[in-house]
Design a protein that fits this description.
Keywords: Hydrolase, Magnesium, Metal-binding. By secondary structure, the protein is α/β, with parallel strands linked by helices. The chain has 2 domains: 143 residues, HAD superfamily/HAD-like (Rossmann fold, 3-Layer(aba) Sandwich), CATH 3.40.50.1000; 96 residues, Rossmann fold, CATH 3.40.50. It contains 10 helices and 15 strands. The chain has a 6-stranded parallel β-sheet with strand order 5-4-1-13-14-15. A 5-stranded parallel β-sheet has the order 7-6-8-9-12, sandwiched between helices. It has a two-stranded antiparallel sheet with strand order 2-3. Strand 2 and strand 3 form a beta hairpin. The protein is globular. The mean pLDDT is 92. Bound molecules: magnesium ion (MG). Magnesium ion binds next to loops.
């Protein structure tokens, strides 16, 4: 029997912080594996390939493989392959993005590209940015893997893909299109990858602007965990809210509580029109 629910799980701030596992995260993932509940790790970091990410998790003691990982670089490459099959791209980014583009039939070029594609990159030079500006003004379309303005590092903060995009947008007057969370493009591909319906999908994350906003826009159920960058008092700054707030995923690893009991199947799906009065009354009781 197929599981009636499945999870899209953010990693940084949910599973680990930097190189440290969050207590209970390993047990939560082990539970999902044992109970055959489908899940996919979603990351807005385009630097690493899905295999790189899987190895990082394995080394932390979480026994998953690359099929459990979906990155914004993958969402970007699949989107471009659909918009313009076998296109060309000038890339400001690293291995994860380059590999995803190649796997989706794209060629990486320096001259006359269809797109300028920007991801996380720690080796950007002013020459690369100048060249990108020329290409965009010459007609190449600007694509970003994600909008995150910065990324936390071991020693502090470094500028993220969103900052690079803002630079290029200001210089060219062109607006980028981005694919990572909270983009419906990434969240929809991820759900379909698991074979779930909208009402079966539950997003777990620590960031309101990406994880929770994305879930709210898609009609997925959402869980905000406070083990990352968001505090309970931050919720008042947002006009939307998560379905459930937990200290961490450790609260979902207690096997005496059934996950289906914590997340009962909604009788009425968000996208359903009720046809039965008794069903409607039961759902709203
Ligand atoms: Mg996070």
């Amino acid at each position: 029997m197929r599981s009636p629910l499945g999870f899209l799980v953010d990693m940084d701030g949910v599973i680990y912080r930097g190189s440290e596992l969050i207590p209970g995260a390993k047990q939560f993932i082990e539970r999902l594996l044992e109970e055959q509940i489908p899940f996919l790790f979603l990351t807005n970091n385009s630097q690493r390939t899905r295999r790189d990410v899987a190895i990082k998790l394995v080394r932390m003691g979480i026994d998953v493989d690359e099929h459990h990982v979906f990155t914004c670089a993958m969402a970007t490459a699949r989107f471009l392959a659909r918009q313009k099959p076998h296109g060309t791209a000038y890339v400001i980014g690293e291995g994860g993005l380059l590999q995803a583009l190649h796997e989706n039939g794209y060629a990486v070029v320096d001259r006359s590209p269809d797109y300028v594609v920007v991801g996380e990159a720690r080796t950007i030079t002013l020459e690369m940015l100048e060249h990108a500006v020329d290409l965009i003004l010459g007609g190449a379309k600007l694509i970003g893997t994600n909008l995150d303005p910065n990324c936390p590092t071991q020693s502090g903060t470094r500028p993220g893909c969103g900052a690079t995009l803002a630079y290029l947008e200001t210089a060219t007057g062109k607006k980028a299109f981005t694919l990572g969370k909270p983009s419906p493009v990434m969240l929809r591909i991820a759900r379909k990858e698991l074979g779930l319906t909208t009402s079966q999908t539950i997003m777990i994350g620590d960031t309101m602007e990406t994880d929770i906003l994305g879930a709210v826009q898609m009609g997925y159920r959402s869980v905000l965990v406070l083990s990352g960058g968001t505090r309970r008092s931050d919720l008042r700054n947002f006009a939307y809210c998560p379905g459930l707030v937990l200290d961490s995923v450790a609260e979902l690893s207690d096997r005496t509580r059934d996950l289906e009991e914590i997340f009962p199947a909604p009788i009425l799906r968000a996208d359903d029109t009720p046809h039965d009065l008794q069903e409607w009354i039961a759902a709203h009781a």
